[in-house]
Amino acid sequence: MAHITPSVRRAYRSAKRQGFGQSATGRGLGLAWQALGWPGRLVLGGAAVALALSVLAPAHARNNEDEPARLSAAQAGAQVAPSTSSEARAAAPVAAPRPAARPERLAAVQPTVATRPAPEIKRGPVTRLPIPRYVSLKGDEGNVRRGPSLSHRIDWVFRHSGMPLRVVGEFGHWRRVEDRDGAGGWVHFRLLSGVRTAIVQQEMVELRSRPDLNAGVIARAEGGAIVRLGECQPDWCRISGSGAKGWVRKAAIWGVDPQEIRD
């Protein structure tokens, strides 16, 4: 509490001597106020004002002291807020880039074509040549035996020089062969030749100037005739014999595989 001045104390003692505060009625208070006189009233009023100021001043001072703190806090918050927002923006996940627009026309899907593995070529244990393969009879006569040796009996004899044969087996110096009818046996390898021939299977086969059914006819071959085999395409082969040469359908002769190609 603020310090009370000596004048206030003197006024308080004078009022007390004149009965101020001894009566609880309003009349006693009025008489005491009148007894103070104008100097006492001024002193008492000034004391009351000083007392009021001393009571209210601390609260007002505290409010004034708190105001800078509140301002500082607000300013600090204003300074921190952008930093917090920046950190929030930095911590926020970066949006994935928008995918490109789908093209209007998609590339056609190419069908997967399954490729067949090439068939394994069987080879003879002696010559390492493919089996089966085509050969021809070298001489005018060839004995066909039941087994791969001279001790085996002769089943029959081939008597057409250049006759086409197909080798289907090997053993030592012997080759197992068969003709167009599937008949055969074992023949010594010296009786065979690598020259390719064919036998005409149809009567009066037309030999044409080129591999085309509309091409001109050069000659005609009789059925059973043995001819020399030349170039072969998928459906045509070129043959020659008796001075004539031309193209025939592959199906009209025996001595070449249907899928065989020759240059």
Task: Please provide a written account of the structure.
With 263 residues, the chain is α+β, with helices and mostly antiparallel strands. The protein folds into three domains: 6-74, no CATH class; 133-193, SH3 type barrels (Roll), CATH 2.30.30.40; 197-254, SH3 type barrels. It has helices spanning 6-17, 26-91, and strands at 133-137, 142-145, 154-158, 164-171, 174-178, 184-188, 192-193, 197-200, 205-208, 217-221, 226-232, 236-241, 244-249, 253-254. The strands form four sheets. It has a five-stranded antiparallel beta sheet with strand order 6-5-4-1-7, with no helix packed on it. Strands 13-12-11-8-14 form a five-stranded antiparallel beta sheet, with no helix packed on it. The protein has a two-stranded antiparallel ribbon with strand order 2-3. α1 (6-17) packs antiparallel against α2. The longest helix is centred in the first third of the chain and has 66 residues, at 26-91. Mean pLDDT is 77; it is low at 20-25, 59-69 and 76-92. It holds the Pfam family SH3_4. Residues 87-99 have a biased composition (Low complexity). Residues 132-195, 196-257 form the SH3b domain.
Topology of helices and strands:
Layout: H1 6-17, H2 26-91, E1 133-137, E2 142-145, E3 154-158, E4 164-171, E5 174-178, E6 184-188, E7 192-193, E8 197-200, E9 205-208, E10 217-221, E11 226-232, E12 236-241, E13 244-249, E14 253-254
Antiparallel strand pairs: 1-4, 1-7, 2-3, 4-5, 5-6, 8-11, 8-14, 9-10, 11-12, 12-13
Helix pairs in contact: 1-2
Protein name: SH3-like domain-containing protein
Organism: Paracoccus isoporae
Biased composition (Low complexity): 87-99
